[in-house]
Amino acid sequence: MKFLKPFYIQNRFFYACITLLVLFVLSFVFPQWFNIVKLLFLVLLVFTVLDILLLYTAKHGIKGSRHLPEKLSNGDENPISLSIDNYYTFPINILIIDEIPEQFQVRNFNITRKLAASSNIKLQYNLRPTERGEYHFGKLNIYVTSVFGLIARRFSFDNNAMIPTYPSFIQLRKYDLIAISNNLNQYGIKKVRRLGHTMEFEQIKEYVLGDDLRTINWKATAKKNQIMVNQFQDEKSQPIYSVIDKGRVMKMPFNGLTLLDYAINASLVISNVALKKHDKAGVFSFSKKTENMIVAEKRTSQMNLILESLYNISTDYFESDFGRLYADIKRNIKQRSLLLLYTNFETLDGLHRQLPYLKGIAKNHLLVVIFFKNTELNSLITKRAETIQQAYDKVIAEKFAYEKRLIVNELKKYGIFSILTTPEDLTLDTINKYLEIKARGLI
After folding, report:
1. pTM of the entire structure?
2. In which band, very low, low, confident or very high, does the pLDDT at 3 lie, cut at 50, 70 and 90?
3. What is the distance between the alpha carbons of residues 255 and 212, in angstroms, rounded to a whole number?
4. Is 135 a residue whose pLDDT tops 90?
5. Which domains does the chain have, with CATH numbers?
């Protein structure tokens, strides 16, 4: 039974049998072929037995291993490495079928390679997860055939490996330099001129050539009998909160990821940038109530806390309660903070229902409402209409796109900042807005 379990008959064997069957039938018409066909049948049996002996003489013919990273990055291409060692003393062909997690729904995964005698090969393939959570790998199955290719022997390795999928830490590393410099034009970061100078006092020092004459401290000058100036430093340690709407409006999918996942990935990156800018970073989510709250701090373990909190956020399909959000912010966040609110409004009426609460939040904090363009509408708008129905659909799509721009103007009317962006550009646009706010000294 142990012999039969990894034993597989290949297509080449069946093709040979079908060919011999046809020749046996034809030998009734051409009797002189009968002895030749019998000889071919014996040759097939000999080669089959020889193939079995070649594959099964070695107890451990090959060794295979799968090398997984500690965690997968959601929405990014993650490399999975394979290592195959051939202990046979002859060349072999291998078919690799890795039992990848069910979330990918890949049912035709296979890799074919040729291995020389007593050799090693390293392979790599990529997986792009679109959901956070645990991903369970099954067995790494390797089917080995010899040069005859009649019989295959299966080897199985690495059973039941689990790997968690976290928000996109690959993006976090990608944009890490943005926290150091505001002049990364290749990433779309805009240079913003700083207005005025900050009001966080550092020290009084002697005047040197080049100091701003407007910072002269006349009282200290009179006491010291020499010109003294006030020195200021950049304002730091401002609380930056990523507020994530996890209601049903954020379940809309784009390119395999939901709007919620795009918001979570952007929150992770902007939190890292804020910490590198010496600000305090925090996150929380809301729907029917406020959850997953990480208070804005500047400690070394803050990014790990934020990462673990974002890992557990999921959509609950309820309509988000902005009134509860306003009350919780007023009760829990006492210091003036920058609030990056990730949500989505499709219509102006939808905004008007929540506008009183947004105005209330903006009275005590600097609020930036981040919502999304519908990229499917853009393709419909740019497509040429050839029928009446297509023209009607195009007009409706233009109406919805125009209403998104009206939402931006409506928020601006009440002094609320906004970002209207595509899901793909969310991270860049959010970093741009944060750097702009920092440069203008608004927070």
Report:
1. 0.77
2. low
3. 52
4. yes
5. 1-166 (2.60.40.10), 169-193+235-439 (3.40.50.410), 200-233 (no CATH)
